[in-house]
Write a structure and sequence with these properties.
By secondary structure, the chain is of the alpha/beta class. The protein is built from 18 helices and 26 strands. The chain has an eight-stranded parallel barrel with strand order 8-9-14-15-16-17-18-19, surrounded by five helices. Strands 1-7-5-6-4-2-3 form a seven-stranded mixed β-sheet, with helices on one face. Helix 2 links the parallel strand 2 and strand 3.
Amino acid sequence: MIKYLRSILFFLMIGFNLQVVAQEYHFVPQPESVSFSGDAFVLDKNTKVVVPKKFQGLLISYLAEKFYSDLGLNLTYSYRNPAIDEKHILFKLDKSLSVKDEGYLLEVQAASIVVTAKDYGGLFNGFQTLRQTFPLENSGTVNVPGMTVKDSPRFGWRGIMLDVSRHFQPKEFILKHIDVLSSYKVNKFHWHLTDDQGWRIEIKKYPNLTEKGAWRADRVGISWWQREEATAEEPKTVGGFYTQEDIKEVIAYAKVRNVEIIPEIDVPGHSKALVASYPHLFCYDEADANFEVAVGGKAPDNAVCAGKDTTYEFLEGVIEEIAALFPSKYLHIGGDECNKSNWKKCPYCQGVKTENNLKDEEELQSHFIQRVHKIVKAQKKTMIGWDEILSGQGAPGATIMAWRRGTYTPEITAPKEGYPTIMTSYKHMYISQVQGPTFMEPEGPKVVLPLSKVYAHEPLPPELTPEEANRVLGNEACLWGEFTPTQDHCEYMLYPRALASAEVSWSDPKVKDWKRFQTAMEASHFKRLEREQVNYAKSLFTVYASYALDELESEAHVYLSTETVGYDIFYTTTGEDPTTASIKYEGDFIAAPKTLIKAGLFNKEGSLLGKLTEIRLK
């Protein structure tokens, strides 16, 4: 009987220990399946790392960099199999492994760690999961818990778009964030390189694109939508661009990190920097036309002419250089938000419209897109466009980025009409929108997109059949650059919402859980971002305050809320800063008009988690 009880106690203790181990590791994105054992692998300076010979040039330098930066370990690296009794980490290829492309099997035992995958991406991603078991301090020795992780991505396209046209970000910044994002299994970096406010890529055939188009007049300190247009006489000191050598460096860096760089050149609209550089691409010459690079806000006269053959000849030269520079099979041509008012008055555009029996300017845009599509296909690239390219006669053979929602339903119509589709919902994935109460966040669109809403996004519409759903390539979060003038601000908008998008794009919805994700951010990933010197937002800890004024009774009904779970809101009505000794929020309450309400979110230890919210009842 005593033996029996001891056995029960032993297995209960093992079960408890495994539960504790499981709670200590907060994976993001959440893997498909994780099981822990009682083993542990002691990772120290005596560990040998073995990689497939075909990937030694890519993988060994990356692994050496991360083992040293994460743990301070200089390990031995080889493509030769380890000896039988040699403690090792083995990366191996197995084409028969039952995972998707970029999926992996991670097995940790006392004598070895083995990452098995069908491809380079899978080996890379398996290592990222392993890295998340490492301690945050540079310890030199790590006890990696025995575990088996089997994991596959939900989508093949797991993207982040960064707009560097509105505000230029230097090459070093791009490299830094490719490194950080790839560690969360993001595999597509969509580079929005041109727009009204700047042309950011060197095109050797057309040097004026960067000599003039990459620079604009200084309007720093003036709200984006209140900026006056530049004059020809003003000095143009704000901007920058990437040389083709810069681009090559970024591409090579990203390749090691399993990231594909997709360039975007936005036409026919959003082209003020282009027509400022080469005015002959505009519809017609007017004495009062402003051909300066836009400084912010709306940019009138920003579409290239859809009727001149010289427009297409020019774009052919641009696309040829870009296609030769970027190894990606994709080339994004924009196609969104084109202001067609000049086309309606342009003799060239109207002539093409008549010659081709086009009924309106929407079909003229379709004509433009199809001509550009032929140029892209001639370079053996697949054209991507924003969902506006579906208007008119569409663009058969293109890939669609479905961003609009509501009146337009491209997330449904594009895959139903046979288009490969990438979901970029502005309601869920435009992380240029602020992420907390608008009056407490930096300047931005007056729409709140909190972390929890990004995390809750479901990219696949229920209206799609299984066959149509298979045309959805994946998901992408977009950071437009109007309100990100500095690197710190850009990072603040990217993180942690980019991590939520990464899990939406990678993890099966069945393993997603907001409370687990929130805990993972707090317990581990905020600290990891700090280690990488990333300026992330803590807006998820903010208290939202609202009230309804009852003028009849001369009182206000006050409502407080937060997106987090597991914490309490405390508030005051006296003007003092709240603590856990203040009033605990249990539901809406009544206060007198003109009362100053202060509220904050507190943990069990009594620490304030985010900023205090202040609101005066009018």
